[in-house]
Amino acid sequence: MENINATIITIGDELLIGQVIDTNSSWISQQLNKIGVSVKKRVAVGDDAEEMKKALDIENGNTDVVLITGGLGPTSDDITKPFLCKYFNGKMVVNDGALENVKRLFEKVYHKPVTEVNLKQAEVPDVCEVIQNKRGSAPGMLFNNGKSIFISMPGVPYEMQGIMEDFIPYLEKKFSLPEIIHKTILTAGIGESAIAEILTNFEKELPKEIRLAYLPNYGMVRLRLTSSGFDKIKTEKVINAQFRQLRDLVKDYMVTDVDENMQEVLGKILLKNKKTISTAESCTGGAIASLITSVPGSSAYFEGSVVSYSNKIKKSLLGVKESTLDQFGAVSEETVKEMLTGLLQKMNTDYGIAVSGIMGPDGGTPDKPVGTVWIAVGNRENQHVQKLKQRFERKKNIEVTSVMALNMLRKFVLENV
pTM to 2 decimals? Predict the structure, then answer.
Protein backbone atom coordinates (compact mmCIF):
# COMPACT_ATOMS: atom_id res chain seq x y z
CA MET A 1 0.00 0.00 0.00
CA GLU A 2 1.28 3.44 -0.90
CA ASN A 3 0.47 7.13 -0.80
CA ILE A 4 0.05 8.37 -4.37
CA ASN A 5 0.71 12.01 -5.23
CA ALA A 6 -0.45 13.94 -8.28
CA THR A 7 0.35 17.19 -10.05
CA ILE A 8 -2.05 19.01 -12.37
CA ILE A 9 -0.57 21.02 -15.23
CA THR A 10 -2.94 23.27 -17.16
CA ILE A 11 -1.76 24.57 -20.52
CA GLY A 12 -2.93 27.65 -22.38
CA ASP A 13 -2.13 31.34 -22.72
CA GLU A 14 -5.83 32.07 -22.09
CA LEU A 15 -5.43 30.80 -18.52
CA LEU A 16 -2.47 33.04 -17.78
CA ILE A 17 -4.10 36.23 -19.05
CA GLY A 18 -7.35 35.54 -17.20
CA GLN A 19 -9.45 35.10 -20.34
CA VAL A 20 -10.52 31.63 -19.17
CA ILE A 21 -10.95 30.52 -15.55
CA ASP A 22 -9.42 27.16 -14.66
CA THR A 23 -12.29 25.04 -13.34
CA ASN A 24 -10.65 21.80 -14.49
CA SER A 25 -8.10 21.63 -11.67
CA SER A 26 -10.76 21.90 -8.98
CA TRP A 27 -12.87 19.15 -10.54
CA ILE A 28 -9.89 16.85 -11.12
CA SER A 29 -8.69 17.34 -7.54
CA GLN A 30 -12.10 16.36 -6.20
CA GLN A 31 -12.19 13.16 -8.27
CA LEU A 32 -8.67 12.14 -7.30
CA ASN A 33 -9.32 12.85 -3.65
CA LYS A 34 -12.30 10.49 -3.69
CA ILE A 35 -10.05 7.55 -4.60
CA GLY A 36 -7.18 8.43 -2.26
CA VAL A 37 -4.82 10.28 -4.61
CA SER A 38 -3.44 13.49 -3.11
CA VAL A 39 -2.92 16.51 -5.35
CA LYS A 40 0.28 18.21 -4.18
CA LYS A 41 0.69 20.86 -6.84
CA ARG A 42 -1.18 22.75 -9.56
CA VAL A 43 0.82 24.47 -12.28
CA ALA A 44 -0.32 26.70 -15.17
CA VAL A 45 1.90 27.29 -18.21
CA GLY A 46 1.34 29.03 -21.51
CA ASP A 47 1.46 27.60 -25.01
CA ASP A 48 5.23 27.52 -24.90
CA ALA A 49 7.21 24.33 -25.46
CA GLU A 50 10.15 25.43 -23.30
CA GLU A 51 7.90 26.24 -20.33
CA MET A 52 6.05 22.98 -20.79
CA LYS A 53 9.35 21.08 -20.76
CA LYS A 54 10.45 22.79 -17.56
CA ALA A 55 7.17 21.87 -15.86
CA LEU A 56 7.34 18.21 -16.93
CA ASP A 57 11.03 17.88 -16.05
CA ILE A 58 10.29 18.96 -12.48
CA GLU A 59 7.50 16.39 -12.07
CA ASN A 60 9.11 13.52 -14.01
CA GLY A 61 10.07 10.96 -11.36
CA ASN A 62 9.08 13.22 -8.47
CA THR A 63 5.31 12.84 -8.80
CA ASP A 64 3.41 9.60 -9.28
CA VAL A 65 0.72 10.96 -11.61
CA VAL A 66 0.87 14.07 -13.79
CA LEU A 67 -2.41 15.24 -15.30
CA ILE A 68 -2.15 17.66 -18.23
CA THR A 69 -5.08 19.57 -19.71
CA GLY A 70 -5.27 21.82 -22.76
CA GLY A 71 -3.55 22.39 -26.08
CA LEU A 72 -4.99 19.39 -27.95
CA GLY A 73 -7.07 21.25 -30.52
CA PRO A 74 -6.56 21.00 -34.30
CA THR A 75 -5.12 24.50 -34.82
CA SER A 76 -1.50 25.63 -35.00
CA ASP A 77 -1.50 27.20 -31.52
CA ASP A 78 -2.34 23.84 -29.93
CA ILE A 79 1.16 22.45 -29.39
CA THR A 80 0.70 19.99 -26.53
CA LYS A 81 0.49 16.83 -28.66
CA PRO A 82 3.59 17.44 -30.82
CA PHE A 83 5.47 18.55 -27.72
CA LEU A 84 4.59 15.34 -25.83
CA CYS A 85 5.52 13.25 -28.85
CA LYS A 86 8.99 14.78 -28.85
CA TYR A 87 9.31 14.73 -25.05
CA PHE A 88 8.66 10.98 -24.89
CA ASN A 89 10.71 10.21 -28.03
CA GLY A 90 7.81 9.02 -30.13
CA LYS A 91 6.54 9.51 -33.66
CA MET A 92 3.09 10.46 -34.85
CA VAL A 93 0.82 7.67 -36.11
CA VAL A 94 -2.87 7.46 -36.94
CA ASN A 95 -4.88 5.71 -34.24
CA ASP A 96 -7.69 3.71 -35.85
CA GLY A 97 -10.05 4.14 -32.92
CA ALA A 98 -9.49 7.91 -32.81
CA LEU A 99 -9.96 8.15 -36.57
CA GLU A 100 -13.24 6.28 -36.42
CA ASN A 101 -14.36 8.53 -33.54
CA VAL A 102 -13.60 11.74 -35.48
CA LYS A 103 -15.53 10.50 -38.51
CA ARG A 104 -18.47 9.44 -36.34
CA LEU A 105 -18.63 12.85 -34.65
CA PHE A 106 -18.67 14.82 -37.87
CA GLU A 107 -21.03 12.54 -39.76
CA LYS A 108 -23.56 11.68 -37.04
CA VAL A 109 -23.28 14.47 -34.47
CA TYR A 110 -22.03 17.60 -36.25
CA HIS A 111 -23.47 16.64 -39.67
CA LYS A 112 -20.49 18.23 -41.40
CA PRO A 113 -17.81 16.91 -43.74
CA VAL A 114 -14.51 15.97 -42.08
CA THR A 115 -11.63 18.26 -43.05
CA GLU A 116 -7.93 17.38 -43.17
CA VAL A 117 -7.37 19.52 -40.09
CA ASN A 118 -9.97 17.51 -38.18
CA LEU A 119 -8.50 14.20 -39.31
CA LYS A 120 -5.17 15.17 -37.75
CA GLN A 121 -6.92 14.82 -34.37
CA ALA A 122 -6.59 11.05 -34.89
CA GLU A 123 -2.78 11.30 -34.96
CA VAL A 124 -1.10 10.41 -31.66
CA PRO A 125 2.42 9.57 -30.47
CA ASP A 126 3.13 5.86 -30.93
CA VAL A 127 4.49 5.68 -27.36
CA CYS A 128 1.16 6.50 -25.68
CA GLU A 129 -1.89 4.51 -24.72
CA VAL A 130 -4.98 6.14 -26.22
CA ILE A 131 -8.07 6.87 -24.12
CA GLN A 132 -10.85 7.55 -26.58
CA ASN A 133 -12.76 10.80 -26.24
CA LYS A 134 -16.44 9.89 -26.30
CA ARG A 135 -17.43 13.54 -26.07
CA GLY A 136 -15.11 15.17 -28.60
CA SER A 137 -12.46 14.63 -31.25
CA ALA A 138 -9.15 14.95 -29.30
CA PRO A 139 -8.26 11.63 -27.63
CA GLY A 140 -6.66 11.34 -24.23
CA MET A 141 -3.05 10.13 -24.21
CA LEU A 142 -1.44 8.12 -21.40
CA PHE A 143 2.36 7.90 -21.11
CA ASN A 144 4.22 5.69 -18.65
CA ASN A 145 8.00 6.09 -18.74
CA GLY A 146 8.59 4.00 -15.62
CA LYS A 147 9.14 7.12 -13.50
CA SER A 148 5.73 8.77 -13.56
CA ILE A 149 2.39 8.32 -15.26
CA PHE A 150 1.35 11.20 -17.49
CA ILE A 151 -2.09 11.71 -18.97
CA SER A 152 -2.89 14.46 -21.45
CA MET A 153 -6.52 15.52 -21.84
CA PRO A 154 -8.47 18.24 -23.69
CA GLY A 155 -9.01 21.52 -21.88
CA VAL A 156 -12.74 21.53 -22.63
CA PRO A 157 -14.24 20.57 -19.23
CA TYR A 158 -17.00 18.33 -20.60
CA GLU A 159 -14.52 16.33 -22.69
CA MET A 160 -11.87 16.19 -19.96
CA GLN A 161 -14.39 14.84 -17.48
CA GLY A 162 -15.37 12.03 -19.84
CA ILE A 163 -11.75 10.92 -20.22
CA MET A 164 -11.18 11.11 -16.46
CA GLU A 165 -14.09 8.69 -16.00
CA ASP A 166 -12.04 6.11 -17.89
CA PHE A 167 -8.72 7.09 -16.28
CA ILE A 168 -9.90 6.74 -12.67
CA PRO A 169 -10.41 2.93 -12.90
CA TYR A 170 -6.90 2.67 -14.38
CA LEU A 171 -5.44 4.34 -11.28
CA GLU A 172 -7.53 2.24 -8.91
CA LYS A 173 -6.32 -0.93 -10.59
CA LYS A 174 -2.67 0.09 -10.79
CA PHE A 175 -2.24 1.37 -7.23
CA SER A 176 -3.31 0.25 -3.78
CA LEU A 177 -4.82 3.51 -2.59
CA PRO A 178 -5.55 4.82 0.92
CA GLU A 179 -8.93 6.06 2.07
CA ILE A 180 -9.13 9.85 2.38
CA ILE A 181 -11.98 10.99 4.62
CA HIS A 182 -13.30 14.54 4.94
CA LYS A 183 -15.89 15.65 7.50
CA THR A 184 -17.30 19.15 7.11
CA ILE A 185 -19.34 21.62 9.15
CA LEU A 186 -20.73 24.86 7.73
CA THR A 187 -21.06 27.70 10.26
CA ALA A 188 -22.58 31.17 10.00
CA GLY A 189 -22.79 34.18 12.29
CA ILE A 190 -19.22 33.98 13.54
CA GLY A 191 -15.89 35.03 12.03
CA GLU A 192 -12.86 32.87 11.37
CA SER A 193 -10.74 34.30 14.19
CA ALA A 194 -13.58 34.00 16.72
CA ILE A 195 -14.28 30.40 15.85
CA ALA A 196 -10.56 29.61 15.91
CA GLU A 197 -10.45 30.92 19.49
CA ILE A 198 -13.27 28.54 20.46
CA LEU A 199 -11.35 25.65 18.91
CA THR A 200 -7.90 26.43 20.33
CA ASN A 201 -7.76 23.50 22.75
CA PHE A 202 -9.53 21.19 20.33
CA GLU A 203 -6.84 21.84 17.71
CA LYS A 204 -4.02 21.24 20.18
CA GLU A 205 -5.44 17.85 21.14
CA LEU A 206 -6.17 16.59 17.62
CA PRO A 207 -4.44 13.31 16.71
CA LYS A 208 -1.49 13.93 14.39
CA GLU A 209 -3.17 12.10 11.49
CA ILE A 210 -6.14 14.52 11.49
CA ARG A 211 -5.99 18.04 10.04
CA LEU A 212 -8.43 20.89 10.67
CA ALA A 213 -8.93 23.47 7.91
CA TYR A 214 -10.76 26.81 8.15
CA LEU A 215 -12.45 27.82 4.88
CA PRO A 216 -14.09 31.26 5.25
CA ASN A 217 -16.39 32.53 2.50
CA TYR A 218 -19.39 34.89 2.19
CA GLY A 219 -19.89 35.52 5.88
CA MET A 220 -19.59 31.84 6.76
CA VAL A 221 -16.79 29.52 7.82
CA ARG A 222 -16.53 25.93 6.65
CA LEU A 223 -14.63 23.65 9.04
CA ARG A 224 -13.12 20.52 7.54
CA LEU A 225 -11.48 17.59 9.28
CA THR A 226 -9.33 15.38 7.06
CA SER A 227 -7.68 12.04 7.70
CA SER A 228 -6.33 9.20 5.57
CA GLY A 229 -5.40 5.58 6.13
CA PHE A 230 -5.46 2.12 4.62
CA ASP A 231 -7.70 0.74 7.35
CA LYS A 232 -11.00 2.39 6.48
CA ILE A 233 -12.90 1.29 9.59
CA LYS A 234 -10.19 2.49 11.97
CA THR A 235 -9.74 5.78 10.10
CA GLU A 236 -13.48 6.48 10.17
CA LYS A 237 -13.74 5.63 13.85
CA VAL A 238 -11.00 8.08 14.84
CA ILE A 239 -12.21 10.97 12.69
CA ASN A 240 -15.87 10.47 13.66
CA ALA A 241 -14.98 10.78 17.35
CA GLN A 242 -13.20 14.07 16.71
CA PHE A 243 -16.01 15.29 14.47
CA ARG A 244 -18.56 14.78 17.25
CA GLN A 245 -16.45 16.96 19.55
CA LEU A 246 -16.13 19.63 16.88
CA ARG A 247 -19.86 19.62 16.26
CA ASP A 248 -20.60 20.09 19.96
CA LEU A 249 -18.17 23.01 20.23
CA VAL A 250 -19.72 24.98 17.34
CA LYS A 251 -23.35 23.85 17.62
CA ASP A 252 -24.60 27.39 18.25
CA TYR A 253 -23.30 28.49 14.83
CA MET A 254 -23.74 25.29 12.81
CA VAL A 255 -25.77 25.41 9.61
CA THR A 256 -25.10 21.83 8.55
CA ASP A 257 -22.70 18.98 9.32
CA VAL A 258 -22.74 17.76 5.72
CA ASP A 259 -20.58 19.16 2.91
CA GLU A 260 -23.29 21.19 1.20
CA ASN A 261 -23.98 24.85 0.47
CA MET A 262 -26.59 27.21 1.92
CA GLN A 263 -29.08 26.83 -0.91
CA GLU A 264 -28.98 23.06 -0.60
CA VAL A 265 -29.59 23.26 3.15
CA LEU A 266 -32.54 25.61 2.68
CA GLY A 267 -33.96 23.44 -0.10
CA LYS A 268 -33.95 20.34 2.09
CA ILE A 269 -35.78 22.18 4.87
CA LEU A 270 -38.43 23.44 2.46
CA LEU A 271 -38.89 20.02 0.88
CA LYS A 272 -39.19 18.33 4.24
CA ASN A 273 -41.88 20.76 5.37
CA LYS A 274 -43.57 21.05 1.93
CA LYS A 275 -43.19 24.83 1.84
CA THR A 276 -42.65 27.22 -1.08
CA ILE A 277 -40.62 30.40 -1.50
CA SER A 278 -40.20 33.35 -3.86
CA THR A 279 -37.86 36.34 -4.04
CA ALA A 280 -38.13 40.06 -4.69
CA GLU A 281 -34.68 41.32 -5.65
CA SER A 282 -33.46 44.82 -6.31
CA CYS A 283 -29.72 45.15 -5.70
CA THR A 284 -28.97 41.43 -6.21
CA GLY A 285 -30.60 41.40 -9.64
CA GLY A 286 -31.76 37.78 -9.49
CA ALA A 287 -28.63 36.34 -7.86
CA ILE A 288 -30.63 34.84 -4.97
CA ALA A 289 -33.00 33.12 -7.38
CA SER A 290 -30.01 31.86 -9.34
CA LEU A 291 -28.54 30.25 -6.21
CA ILE A 292 -31.86 28.63 -5.32
CA THR A 293 -32.40 27.22 -8.81
CA SER A 294 -28.84 25.89 -9.00
CA VAL A 295 -30.10 23.02 -6.83
CA PRO A 296 -31.65 20.14 -8.82
CA GLY A 297 -35.30 19.70 -7.89
CA SER A 298 -35.73 23.29 -6.68
CA SER A 299 -38.90 23.59 -8.78
CA ALA A 300 -40.63 21.67 -5.98
CA TYR A 301 -40.37 24.68 -3.65
CA PHE A 302 -39.32 27.75 -5.68
CA GLU A 303 -42.13 29.57 -7.49
CA GLY A 304 -40.30 32.52 -9.03
CA SER A 305 -38.75 35.95 -8.60
CA VAL A 306 -39.51 39.60 -9.24
CA VAL A 307 -36.35 41.53 -10.13
CA SER A 308 -37.64 44.91 -9.08
CA TYR A 309 -34.55 46.91 -9.95
CA SER A 310 -36.40 50.18 -10.55
CA ASN A 311 -38.80 52.02 -8.29
CA LYS A 312 -41.36 51.76 -11.09
CA ILE A 313 -41.41 47.97 -10.80
CA LYS A 314 -41.37 48.10 -7.01
CA LYS A 315 -44.56 50.13 -7.18
CA SER A 316 -46.37 48.47 -10.07
CA LEU A 317 -45.58 44.79 -9.37
CA LEU A 318 -44.95 44.68 -5.63
CA GLY A 319 -47.25 47.43 -4.43
CA VAL A 320 -44.62 49.55 -2.69
CA LYS A 321 -46.22 52.91 -1.88
CA GLU A 322 -44.83 55.99 -3.56
CA SER A 323 -45.01 57.77 -0.22
CA THR A 324 -42.76 55.10 1.28
CA LEU A 325 -40.16 55.57 -1.45
CA ASP A 326 -40.38 59.36 -1.15
CA GLN A 327 -40.02 59.40 2.62
CA PHE A 328 -37.60 56.53 3.26
CA GLY A 329 -36.02 55.74 -0.12
CA ALA A 330 -35.68 52.46 -1.99
CA VAL A 331 -32.94 51.26 0.38
CA SER A 332 -34.84 51.16 3.64
CA GLU A 333 -36.50 48.87 6.13
CA GLU A 334 -39.92 50.21 5.18
CA THR A 335 -39.42 49.51 1.47
CA VAL A 336 -38.20 45.92 1.80
CA LYS A 337 -41.08 45.13 4.16
CA GLU A 338 -43.56 46.38 1.59
CA MET A 339 -41.68 44.51 -1.16
CA LEU A 340 -42.01 41.30 0.84
CA THR A 341 -45.71 41.83 1.55
CA GLY A 342 -46.42 42.47 -2.12
CA LEU A 343 -44.31 39.51 -3.18
CA LEU A 344 -46.18 37.05 -0.99
CA GLN A 345 -49.49 38.34 -2.33
CA LYS A 346 -48.32 38.18 -5.92
CA MET A 347 -46.59 34.78 -5.76
CA ASN A 348 -48.82 33.14 -3.14
CA THR A 349 -45.85 31.34 -1.54
CA ASP A 350 -45.36 30.31 2.07
CA TYR A 351 -42.15 32.33 2.50
CA GLY A 352 -40.33 35.12 0.72
CA ILE A 353 -37.12 37.15 0.56
CA ALA A 354 -36.89 40.84 -0.34
CA VAL A 355 -33.65 42.79 -0.74
CA SER A 356 -32.71 46.36 -1.65
CA GLY A 357 -29.32 47.99 -1.36
CA ILE A 358 -26.40 49.93 -2.82
CA MET A 359 -23.76 47.59 -4.23
CA GLY A 360 -21.35 50.17 -5.65
CA PRO A 361 -19.04 51.45 -6.77
CA ASP A 362 -21.30 54.53 -6.97
CA GLY A 363 -24.66 55.50 -5.55
CA GLY A 364 -23.76 55.84 -1.88
CA THR A 365 -24.57 58.80 0.36
CA PRO A 366 -23.35 59.80 3.85
CA ASP A 367 -26.53 58.28 5.34
CA LYS A 368 -26.50 55.24 3.07
CA PRO A 369 -22.94 54.44 1.97
CA VAL A 370 -22.05 51.82 -0.61
CA GLY A 371 -22.64 48.39 0.89
CA THR A 372 -25.83 49.34 2.72
CA VAL A 373 -28.40 46.57 2.26
CA TRP A 374 -31.80 45.85 3.77
CA ILE A 375 -33.12 42.27 3.77
CA ALA A 376 -36.61 41.14 4.75
CA VAL A 377 -37.64 37.50 5.08
CA GLY A 378 -40.87 36.05 6.33
CA ASN A 379 -44.39 34.83 5.72
CA ARG A 380 -47.80 36.51 5.82
CA GLU A 381 -47.84 36.61 9.62
CA ASN A 382 -44.29 37.59 10.53
CA GLN A 383 -41.27 39.32 9.04
CA HIS A 384 -37.66 39.52 10.07
CA VAL A 385 -35.68 42.51 8.77
CA GLN A 386 -31.94 43.08 8.94
CA LYS A 387 -29.59 45.82 7.79
CA LEU A 388 -26.22 44.80 6.39
CA LYS A 389 -23.14 46.99 5.96
CA GLN A 390 -21.03 45.32 3.28
CA ARG A 391 -17.47 46.45 2.71
CA PHE A 392 -16.51 44.72 -0.53
CA GLU A 393 -16.56 45.50 -4.23
CA ARG A 394 -19.80 45.20 -6.19
CA LYS A 395 -19.63 41.54 -7.22
CA LYS A 396 -18.78 40.27 -3.77
CA ASN A 397 -21.35 42.55 -2.12
CA ILE A 398 -23.99 40.86 -4.26
CA GLU A 399 -22.68 37.37 -3.50
CA VAL A 400 -22.45 37.94 0.26
CA THR A 401 -25.91 39.53 0.38
CA SER A 402 -27.43 36.60 -1.51
CA VAL A 403 -26.04 33.97 0.85
CA MET A 404 -26.88 36.03 3.94
CA ALA A 405 -30.47 36.36 2.73
CA LEU A 406 -30.74 32.60 2.26
CA ASN A 407 -29.39 32.03 5.77
CA MET A 408 -31.86 34.52 7.23
CA LEU A 409 -34.72 32.67 5.57
CA ARG A 410 -33.32 29.30 6.70
CA LYS A 411 -33.40 30.43 10.32
CA PHE A 412 -36.82 31.99 9.92
CA VAL A 413 -38.33 28.81 8.46
CA LEU A 414 -36.83 26.65 11.23
CA GLU A 415 -38.30 28.97 13.85
CA ASN A 416 -41.75 28.99 12.26
CA VAL A 417 -42.47 25.48 10.99
Answer: 0.81
